Amino acid sequence: MFCEESVATYRLYCFSDLTGRVTAAEEIEAPSDEEAIVASRALGMTVKCELWHRDRLMAVLEPDDVGQ
Fold first, then answer.
1. Which of 59, 64, 8, 66 has the alpha carbon at shortest distance from 37?
2. Is-contact 10 51, C-beta < 8 A?
3. pLDDT tens digits along 22-64
4. The whole model's pTM is what?
5. Rounded to an integer, what distance in angstroms lies between the CA atom of residue 27 and that of residue 9?
């Protein structure tokens, strides 16, 4: 029997260093919270970002987190 892996949609919000306001938002689809965090880091953001799944804050990513 074929079993399809379910994915969730996460939102990555990136903030301006100058104003602290959201300057970009990306949708990320991943099968788990951990994979969503890995995918977010792989985008190579150069500013502070927050990864959310619905109303849950999953991670705060600093520019130093890129590639980890």
1. 59
2. yes
3. 999 999 999 999 999 999 999 988 999 999 999 999 999 998 7
4. 0.84
5. 7
- Identify residue 48 by its one-letter amino acid code: K
- 8 contacts: CB under 8 Å, gap ≥ 6: 29, 30, 31, 36, 53
Amino acid in position 6: S
Q: What is the CB neighbour count within 10 angstroms for residue 3?
A: 5
CB 49 within 8 A of CB 41: no
In whole angstroms, how far apart are CA 14 and each of 35, 38, 51, 68?
Answer: 18, 16, 9, 18
